[in-house]
Amino acid sequence: MSLLDAARTVRENAYAPYSNFKVGAALRTADGTVFTGINVENVAYPEGTCAEAGAIAAMCATGAREIAEVAVIADAPAPVPPCGGCRQKIAEFAKADVVVTMATTDGATLQMTVAELLPGRFDASHMDRT
Q: Which residue among 25, 40, 51, 62 has the highest number of C-beta atoms inside a 10 angstrom radius?
């Protein structure tokens, strides 16, 4: 199963009763393991949590720390990029040249690198005073 197919499959489990905007995400680690995530809304936090953050949390729960590829899919007129917070989270675990594939359920895709999605990203080097 491709990474995009994994995101497409898990998207069906998204919990979006308020927006009805279901998002699925999948990431592959450096060793080839795939983790998935969905957006989850609730009455107290109707904007919900992001699918990409869920996939990253699942990855971290196993001790993995390096993203090699990301795919995100939503039922939208154009491919939807990760939100700003998720871009920073992805950048925390992925090198600048890692490809992020954004897709629609109708089959449109857009690929960008992490560096293209988050130019000028904050990283540990900003705290290095040596």
A: 25
* Structural domain of 72: 3-127
- What is the number of structural domains in the chain? 1
Stated length of the chain = 130
Mark whether 12 is an active-site residue.
Answer: no
Out of 41, 52, 66, 92, the active site residue is: 52
15, 46 Cβ separation under 8 angstroms: no
What CATH number should be reported for the domain holding residue 55?
3.40.140.10
Query: Strands, E, within 1-120: which ranges?
Result: 23-29, 34-38, 40-42, 45-49, 67-74, 94-104, 109-113
| pTM score of the predicted model | 0.91
